[in-house]
Amino acid sequence: MSAADPYQQALIDLARAGHGAGSLPAPDGSALRDSPLCGDRVRMQVRLEGGRVSALAHDVKGCLLCQAAAAMLGLHGVGLDEAGLRAARQGIAAGLAGGEAPPGWPEFALFEPVRPMRNRHGCVLLPFDALIGAIEDAGGKPPAA
Amino acid sequence: MSFDALSWRGQFPLLASHPQLHYLDSAATSQICRAAFDAVGLHELGRRANVLRGTYRLAEMADAAYEDARRQVAAYLNAGSADEVVFTSGATASINLVAHAFGEGLQPGDEVALSLAEHHSNFVPWQMLRARRGVALRFLPLAADGRIDLSRLEQAVTPRCRLVAVTQASNVTGAVTDLAPLVAAARAVGARVLVDGAQAAQHGPVDVTALGCDFYAFSGHKVFAPNGVGVLWGRAAELERLPPFLGGGGMIGRVTAADTTWAPPPRRFEAGTPPIAQAVGLGAALDWLRQQPWPEMRSHGEHLLGRLLDGLEALPGLTLLGPRQPEHRLPLVSFSLAGIHPHDACQVLDQHGVAVRGGHLCAQPLMDYFGVTAAVRASLAPYNTEEDVAALLAGLEDVVRRLS
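^ Those are the sequences you sent over. The predicted structure of the assembly is below.
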């Protein structure tokens, strides 16, 4: 019943770094996503320019995996459009399921020990779902004056 | 007479074959005892047939085993009759059965009283009933430690109350509900009482007659028996009054093109092929449990609980959820650690061979009440030992060292 240890110092450091943590003064969209499994909660705010993320901010009430995934989005989320973000989310999910590591997300290597822990995959994906929700929310609003 | 937990542990095949496992998640699912495991095997290999349908000898044997299981459950509950025992798929199904069948008779404005300390299984069905029937939900007030505040029952148990649905013991705090005042308050306004015994039934034989309730629900997998079976006990007169919940084979009197009449309880509530082998395993588990030295086993649990509480309180940043006094709780402890998420703690504890549960524990209203999103829960059964508690405490020291 031995298992790989996801709690390497580099992952803890990424979570603690909190890239993108905080709030935006005038977001174009925001979304709150809950994990039905564990009660983790992520609020993501986004500003868009030309359909791409120009700024994002997150507030994570969740585990280290969720915090680290949100920080990873803080590093690489700016510049993505909705399609790119959905593709990234699919790549992360596939990587967790045992597939290739998704290109453009070097920190994914820190999450590889999570692969056999299927109940924790949702912790990693929750910030992605929240950011997709925030972009969807922005898309439903009229552009800021 | 002292209780030998290690010897008892030997009666559980999984634990016997995993001596290094510190299993402290019996509140979620207990390990299956050898008596139940053997009974399921014997039934499936020697008596497997559908019940209440066949006329051949094998089917007669299956019928007898199934009805014997009903009698074994009735004995564990000190029920007046085996016919008061309805087999379901688990406590959740049992409570949903009452929510639908009893709920059929409720009118808009009628009230159901429950508490924020309920498991989702005794919470969501009543919200769904509220949406279907327009009944109102009243919440029994809680004290700061999560126990029901019995001094203010009249706030929730009003003259419009038709049912009090309450846990016998919280799956989060372990707090044991003092049911007598609740039953009295319900009786005073003519309301019925449903007790969610999912946690409490594991900790010794139940006396539904003494409890004075009308319905009692529990699951097999929490009483050292198989998954997929549970029980709704109902007072005979109450079951007789209720319409069926699910329709299908086995629950009818006569079906015509025009109409259907119902079988008497308990079969009225057992539509379709029931979980036969699981029920036989449940009966065997409860029969075996009834023969155990419960006073010594409870002393053992209280001793371990004391050691656990003392050790937890020495950890920096730990907040206990629920009452501190051991006499008010089952050997089940939930807690939060400052700056450490329960899932992270559980994952690290797993590296120490310690299996505990973390998350909202299917009790989000109570988590909201305590102002947390999740907690770590360690739940003890009689097969747990001092070594299990020591392993948990050592693992938690590692959790705090690595993650705080």
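The helical segments of chain A are 9-17, 64-76, 82-96, 121-139. Chain A touches chain B at residues 1-3, 5-7, 12, 37-41, 61-66, 117, 120, 123 (CB under 8 Å).

Shout if you want it in another format.
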